[in-house]
Every structure is written in C-alpha cells, then in structure tokens.
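note to self: dont lose this again. the chain is below, predicted strucutre after it. 155 aa total, dont forget to put it in the shared folder this time
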Amino acid sequence: MQVLQEFASYTEWLDSLEKLSESNWNKQIDSEKWSIKQIILHIAHWDNHLLNVIIPSVKNGEGMIFPDFDPFNARATKRAEKLSGEVVLKESLQSRRVLIIMLESLSEEALTYKTTANGVSHDPHQGVPYSLHVIIEEFIEHDRHHMKQVESILK
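---
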C-alpha cells in the first residue's frame, strides 16, 4: 500500500541524521521551541502510541483513543533531554520499523475499517470516516511538518 511505503520512508530520512553531532541534536528550532532530539523523540512516542494503543484497539473493534496532546508531548520532550541524540535516533528507528511491520501485517480491510477517534467518527480536516489509513496519512503530514523544522535548523 502506497501510504505505508510513504510512512516507512521516514526511516530513510532518520538515517540521514546519523552523523549529527550532539550539539546539533540539541539545537532548537527557536529559543522557545524544541530541539532536534526532542522533535525526533516526540515522533517516536506517537509511533509507540499507535503501536501499543491505537492498533490493538482497532483490531479489537474499539475506537482509537488519543491522549491529551500537551502532557503526552511534554513527557517525550522531557525524556529527550536526558538521552543522547544517538539513543534517540536508535529508539526512533526501532519504533518506526516495528510499527511498519505491524501495519504491513494488517489486511487492507483492517487498515480501512471505519472507526472513531476519541468518540468522533469523521476526520474534521478531511471530512472522511476515521480509519487506520486516515490516521497514517495524518501522521505522514505530521512527520513532514517536523522534518521541515529539523531541516531548517540544519541549514
């Protein structure tokens, strides 16, 4: 499925960060914004949420549950401060790879199964019924947003 290949391509982009120095990993988008390390771990935390919470609930025919974004994101960014860029990169690659394997193991029916997100049936941005496929498309956009931020820091 095309969307899964696109979602998986994030790992190739992550590989390009392998040579970053620790000082680069700690560079921030802006003085009040996250560092590269925090951005990358933030994405990995969402990957783990998809893997450990969202996919199992959809497989069980239950709706998707997303946590309150701010505290969830804060946990990831605080944790990133304690880790090296190398550890964040390894963890992020591992999370995305396991998530891709899990998604690829699902049938197209499972990926397109209509479900809810926090009790809402339709994606407010696209107006389409929620499904894992729709959520993956949203996470691709989320990846792209953060990849652009990181690339702007590294210019």
